[in-house]
Every structure is written in C-alpha cells, then in structure tokens.
Amino acid sequence: MTVRRLPRKPDCRSRTGWQLVAGGLLALATATTAAKTDIRSLEALAKHAKALAAEAYRAPETSMPPALRDLDYDAYRDIRFRPKHAIWRDTDLPVEIQLLHLGMFYKTPVEMHLITQDGVRPIAFDPALFDYGRNSVPTEIPDRFGFSGFRMHYPLNTPDYKDELVVFQGASYFRALGAGQQFGLSARGLAIDTAEPEGEEFPVFRAFWVKWPRADATRFEVLALLDSRSVTGAYRIEITPGETTRTRVTAELFPRQPIGKLGIAPLTSMYQYGETRPRPDTDFRPEVHDSDGLLVHSGEEWLWRPLSNPGQLTSNAFSSRQLHGFGLMQRDRAHDSYADLEAHYERRPSAWVETHGDWGEGHVELVQIPTNNEMNDNIVAYWVPDEAIQPGASYRVSYTVHWQNAQLTGPDLGRVTATRIARPAEDDDATRFVVDFEGETLADLPPEAVVRAEVGQSGGFQAREVQTMRNRATGGWRAVLTGRPEDGAASPIDLRLALVGKDDQPLTEVWSYTVHRP
C-alpha cells in the first residue's frame, strides 16, 4: 500500500495584472448536477449531498485529451496557471485564486464555482488560463472537463506579495501554510478502510464553491461536495491565515452503504528516516521527514509516539473516551538536523486537529508504511469512531486543523524532543531507548529534585535498566530504558514511559513505542 504524495507546486511569481471576473475568462461552465443546484450555504450543500447519497454511485468521467494522456511528473509540472488570470487579481480583495490543471494522476474533474451576491457562478475550463510550456496545447476538450483543484494566495509573509496559503488537489486532499512555512504534510476530507486487506477507498471532492470575500476579510470560506462509492458529504472549510493558519472543518456525511472503518480528520505525512531509523549510506542528510511524531490529547493525558519507517506495514490504535485533539507534528526545527538547502524540512508545518464537541468513544489510529524514498507519504493518522453509521443516517463532525510551528504539549508538562534507539553490545536481542525531554517545568526543577521514570507495557517486556538524569546541555532530562521481549511473549509489545516527580506528580507527556520480537 502506498499513499501518493502530492507533487511540489510550480512557483508562479508573475506580477502582470488581469483579473478573472464575470465577463472575462469566467464563463458559464457546462451544466452539471452540482452546477444546477443553487448552493450558497452548508445547509443547501448538505441537502444536495443527502439526495445524492440516495442515488446509485456514478464514477466521475475521466476522459482526457490526447495531449494530456500519460504525462510524466516533469511534463505535468510544466503546465502552469497564468497568474495574470487569477480570480480577484488586481482588486482590493486580500486573496486570489489560481486553478490547477488535470493530468498525470489527477484525472478526476473538479467543478469550480464562486458564490457572489448575485448568485452562484460556475467557472469554465479554458486552455488560455494555462501556459503549457513544452507540452502541446489540448484542442479536443471534453464536456465537463473541469480542473484538478485550486489554490488560494494571501500575503502571509510580506504585505506586497501573495504567497500560497492553501491547496485543494487530488481526492479529498488539502494542505495549508502558516507564515514562514513550506508545504509538507496534508489533510484529507475523509479516509475509508485505510490499511484494510480489501483495499482503501478514496472519497473525492467533486465540486467546490468559494465564497466571494469582503475587502477587509481575514477568513475565507470554501464549500466542498465529497463523493465516493460508500458515502457523500457536505463540507464547509473556513480558512484563517496567520502565524498559525487554521482550517475549521464542518462536515455532514451521508453513507450509501455500511462502512467498515471510517477515518475522521485524516492526516498524511512522510517519514523516511531520522533518530529512530539510521541514515542510509547513499544520503548525506541526517534526517528526512515532514513529521517526526504523533501527539494525542485524550482526557488528562498527552501522549507522544515517535514515527518510524517500519519494515512492514504497522497499525497502532490509541483508545480515547474524551478526545481533545491529535496531530502529526514536526518538533525538530533545527536546520542542522536535515542539512537540506532545498527541502527545508525544518520549515514543514505541524498539523494539530482540535476537536469541537464530544466525539464519543473511539480511537486514534496511526498507520506507518515502509518507504525507501521521500516522494511517497507513508504516514497516516485519523480518528475512528466506535459507533458505525449506517445508510439512512447522517454523521456531523467539526474540528480545526492548526498548521503551526508551535511546540504543543500539555501545560506544565515536559515534551519529548528526541528518541534514539541502539542495540546493546552485550545482548543482540535487547533494545536501548534514550528519550530526551524538555520544558520549563523540567528546567526549573531544583538541583536536589528526584525524578524517576514510570514505565508501563502491554506485557512481555523485561526491563533490565531504567535510568533518569539531568541533561545539562538542554536544560531538560533524559530517560534510558534497556530491555528485551521475554521468551514466548506476544508481539508486538507497547511501551509507555513518563517522568514523575515528588508524590508521583507527572512532569512530562507520555512517551509510547512499539517493540517487535526479533
């Protein structure tokens, strides 16, 4: 199983002026089911999605002109939207939209609409919107050709240039940036049957409606229609740019058929190697990853699971009865940890999912897939509710994804900053875990403070050595755990470790890791 990674977007920095508005290149698109529906609100879209769920699923038409068939990665990248045609270009609006072309593995046409004071205006495909570079300009355009998605631009970093803010492209993928960040991991509208033997189903955003903003707007609204063999959905995504950009998602789902495993608020990322996996001899960079850990806040507990690149697909479930949030985080912000002058992994955002309302009982699931390169997203995390939804019912959920640099953890708790793994020379079957923690609470402990490591396990792990020591280089503390699975122990074994102080007062979040028998 491989989760395809979205290609890097071309950097379009032309400053020539022209705006895409009604009467210009904004023409009426060929009427479709969605285009014929007057959708201006989440409620109207939900009504449409519910009606669609009552119909038999119809796969999207994916016929492509000969000039666009079988494009490779470089040829597809050579097709660039002409910035002078951006929607709201050279207006007093703070945001503008650029459209994305179909091609390569982006073969599902997406309808685009603008919600204006005068009604809903579909946006028609026109080759004149794009510079095809070395590719032939397509001449045989099918009806309902559409786009593969779109991106919003906003002055995130300087007031006189609109940077990429958010991109919607491919299935139900979207990703966003805060100030000073560089694209990394992605979010998805929904995941179905991820890592299941029968294969994963990928719902797609079939149509978007972008609300025309005010000149003083600091938040931008997008409606999206999700569709797949098993489910339809109505989504409202409110985008608030800033140092941390927030995408607030409100969704209502309508199943067509029973769903085996429903993944809510899925995040996908990449981890090739780092502290938990040695650097290959063929690469000079110390670490390569968009995220280095999963963080879960459930009840009173904050839990940190370092990511890995396993030898085979692995799946871990973290049960929760009161989920507050979870995220795939990039905690290591030191350039020297990556030494990459192009990818700049230290600038990749963390994505923290803040839940709204009571999500009930369920679990956060982490799927890690083997990869030998940095082009494939091999990490997936999402929430799985215990209660299944059936056809004829609906499921409403709301959450905010924070695209941030902040080092998030619980108040007054130290956070895990590094996990290093070694094999003791005296025992090839043993593993030594060296876990570093940092935080103000740890730094402020007096010299005489007694700190110990509290270790838990799912069973069958023999801990031979547990040590704690002050890390004077960082102002934090280090825990060292050495041990091995007992003979006959079931595999895998889940370990938990946290630092506690006087009267067993928690000082840190919980470190978690899975050990497999040799």
Give an overview of the whole structure.
Helices cover 4% and strands 41% of the residues. By secondary structure, it is mainly beta. The protein folds into 2 domains: 42-404, Beta-galactosidase, Chain A, domain 5 (Distorted Sandwich); 415-515, Immunoglobulin-like. The strands form 5 sheets. The protein has a 14-stranded mixed β-sheet with strand order 4-3-11-12-13-14-25-22-21-18-19-32-31-28. Strands 2, 6, 7, 8, 9, 10, 15, 20, 23 and 24 form a 10-stranded antiparallel β-sheet that branches. The longest helix has 12 residues, at 42-53. It is globular, with a radius of gyration of 24 Å. The model is unreliable at 1-32 (pLDDT under 50).
Q: Which CATH top level class of the largest domain fits?
A: Mainly Beta
Give me the secondary-structure category: mainly beta
Q: Architecture of the largest domain, CATH level 2?
A: Distorted Sandwich
Q: Poorly predicted ranges (pLDDT <50, ≥5 residues)?
A: 1-32
The Rg value, from CA coordinates, equals 24 Å
Approximate shape: globular
- Overall strand count: 32
Count of alpha and pi helical runs:
3
Mean pLDDT value: 90
Strand content: 35-45%
How many separate domains?
Answer: 2
What's the main sheet like? 14 strands, mixed
Spatial order of the strands forming the largest sheet: 4-3-11-12-13-14-25-22-21-18-19-32-31-28
CATH topology of the largest domain: Beta-galactosidase, Chain A, domain 5
**Amount of helix:** under 10%
Distance between the termini: 24 Å
